[in-house]
Amino acid sequence: MAKAATGTPGTSDNPSSLKKWAMRQYWRLQQSQSIISMGFWVILLTLNIWPYIRWRFEGDETLLGIPATYWGFVSISVVVILLVMFVGWFYDHFLALWKEHQNVILERNPFATYLLTPRDTLIIGHLVTILRTQHPDDEEIQSQCDWMEKWIATTPDLEVFRRMVTELDAKLDEPVPEFSFLPEGSVEGARKTAQKDQMIPDEK
Description:
Structural class: mainly alpha
Shape: elongated
Mean pLDDT: 81
Radius of gyration: 28 Å
Largest sheet: 2 strands, antiparallel
Low-confidence stretches: 1-12
């Protein structure tokens, strides 16, 4: 069973970790933002439009056993939803600003510019090893390999690398091994840091 973490998990009194924790909570709020916003739009516009058209639905008339007033509210809500969907369709097909939006997101994403994901690190690391073996006398290639190894050596310091190690330790039958293209003890160091931050299951 997983050990229950106390306080704010993973912050370790580090301002950078605290900001990351805050952004994680903000991301969770964003996941429900569209649905909540749609609900507010429907409720707000329905209540604002209703006073102008309620005279059409007043009285004792019913449809399928439901009072006309409720049909009025439902009709306004459906129209609002269709209007919002039409605006979204128009935005998608004619304005197409989402393309530039995605470009900006990509430009601001550190893992698309100067940081490496654990998967990228393993792929590049093995490619560097192959290049070194195939071209042992080529100084230019060896120099490029040295530069690439310096780059991938920055990855074990990232939380995403620690999560990769702990997740694969739990999922596979054996722990993640040390890799020759990473600084010595990088994987074990990431594992110990994860244990300190209470990111892995209890061994009991």
